[in-house]
Structures are given as C-alpha cells and as structure tokens.
Amino acid sequence: MNVLKTILYFSIFRYPLKLEEIHDYTNHDNKANTAEELDLLIQKGILFMVDEFYVYGNDLDSVTKRLKGNLYASNIMTKAYKRAKFISKFPYVEAVGISGSLSKGYHDENSDIDFFVITKPDRLWMCRTLLILFKKIFLLNSRKYFCVNYFISTSSLEIEEKNRFTATELKTLIPITGKEVFEIFYTKNLWVNDYFPKFKPDLSPIGNQNKPFFTKTLEFGLNNTLGEFVDSGFKKITIAKWKSKFKNIATEDFKIALKSTQDISKHHPSNFQQRVILALNEKYREFQKNYNIELAEEHA
Question: Around Cβ 288, how many Cβ atoms within 10 Å?
Fold first, then answer.
C-alpha cells in the first residue's frame, strides 16, 4: 500500500508525483511493478494521468501548481545553499540541511526556506539565540529566506517522533554541510526504512565544515562553565517567552510543536506535523468510504 499512501500523502499538499518519484517510496525493486500498481489504480478511476503525473481525484490543476512551484524552487535553490553555508559558520553549528517544501522541490510566494540545524551538545540554545538575533537585527525578523525552526544536538540525533510525516521529512532533507555528522544522523534514524525501504541518503556532494577563526575563538572561549550558564539562561528565557506567547496551546501539543529540551528545539506553533497526520488519516477514511479499501491510520 506504499504506492497509495505516498500519493495520498502528497495530495494533501496538492503535489502530484511522477512514476520515478512514487517508485522511490515503495518496496518494489522493479519499477515495472510500481507502474502496474499505478495502472490498476487508474483503471479503477482512483488516479488520473496528466502528462507524466499521477493525480488523485479530480485535482487536475495541481499539475500546473506543481510545475510553477518546481520552477520557483530551482530559481531559489542557489540562495538557499548560500544561506545554509552561512548558517554553518555560526558558533556551535555542526551540520545544516534544507528541509520543508523546498527540500521536495517546491517553493512559492508564500513559502519560507526552512533549515534543519545540528549543533554541538550543551550549546544548542546559545547557537539558536545567535541565529535568531541575526535574523531579528539584520533581516528585520523576516524568516522568508532564513527560517531556523528546528535544532537538535549531536547528543540527540535520533528523531523521537517516528511517523510517516517525520520519515518523509528525513527522506527529503537536503544535507548541505557537516558530512560526518549527517552520516551518524542517518545511522541513528534507520527506522525511516520501515516506511521507505529503499531509502539510502547520498552524502557524496557535501563536505565537512570549516569554521572561521572568529567562530573557533568564540567556541574555545566559552568551552567552560560560563558557556554552560549562558546556554542554560537562553533556554530558560526562550521557553518562558514561548509559554507566555503560546499559552493557548494545550500542554501535550506544546510538548511536540514547541519541544524544548537540552538537545532539541522545535518552533512549530501551528503543530504542522499533527495537522498533516490528521489530514492524512481523514484522506484514508474518505478513501475507504469511496473505494472500500482500508488503510492503516498513521500516528503523530
């Protein structure tokens, strides 16, 4: 059912897929097997072919939307790479990747450029604060090309929320810097293959980081109890601010959407992960009602 689940997942974002893309999410070794499964879904009237895209339902306009988004993404990717390289120069940054819609080849006028940042242990909150201060001061708090909303440290490389959403995010993540760190990161998250058996990240295009002298000096100067005190202080200030600003978010939702530990910082107040999982399960129920085919629901 990976073919069907993949198509339904991306239909939430109105993003129809090609045969090669769908096949990459399946456990089929032979692309012809994936094509046969797709042909059967077309014969049943579940899918439609528009050019080379497989469209679920009657959302034929989604093909035009995707093509425009792909073009926009290709035009902005160079800027995203440069921003990722720039982020990698900040103190305590160990690795940087491009995530979100851009990592899937899509971007539009309402999109941000999302970055996934891996930091040194016990300095995550200092690293995060420095990046946020840069955004606020020099980018006038605009996150459009500088959205740093997910940090983990090298002490917590295994993603705790193991579901189809996070598996898709890890599969589509584009590592930019920190090759050795990403190699360990992916070995810590082999559970992704439970969802996508053929997933094998390609880290050959990226290298390891080379920090500027100023960054190395700052890291060396704060490699002591003072650095621990500053990091702890930034953590307390940030969490207190979030609890005040997002006090209407339920406690359990806060723990996921704004997860804040010594080694993890997420800033997703809209709880996008849960929204996607809920929308996907609704798609499954709708599909079962229309076609009498039951799909096991996902968990957040």
Answer: 12
Rounded CA-CA distance 32/118 in Å is 39
Tell me the C-alpha distance between 240 and 19, whole Å. 48
Nearest Cα neighbor of 117 from 147, 87, 151 is 151
Sheet strands (E) in 64-156: 93-99, 114-119, 147-153
- Helices 164-172 & 2-11 angle (0-180, nearest 10): 80
Q: Which CATH architecture has domain 2-59+276-291?
A: Orthogonal Bundle (1.10)
Distance from C-alpha of 165 to C-alpha of 29, rounded to nearest angstrom: 23
Structure confidence by residue, pLDDT tens digits, 245-272: 999 999 999 999 999 999 999 999 999 9
With a threshold of 0.90, does the pTM exceed it?
yes
C-beta atoms surrounding 167 within 10 Å: 22
Q: What is the DSSP letter of 296?
A: P
Please name every residue paired with 95 in a beta bridge, in sequence order, or none if there are none. Answer: 118
DSSP classification of residue 53: E
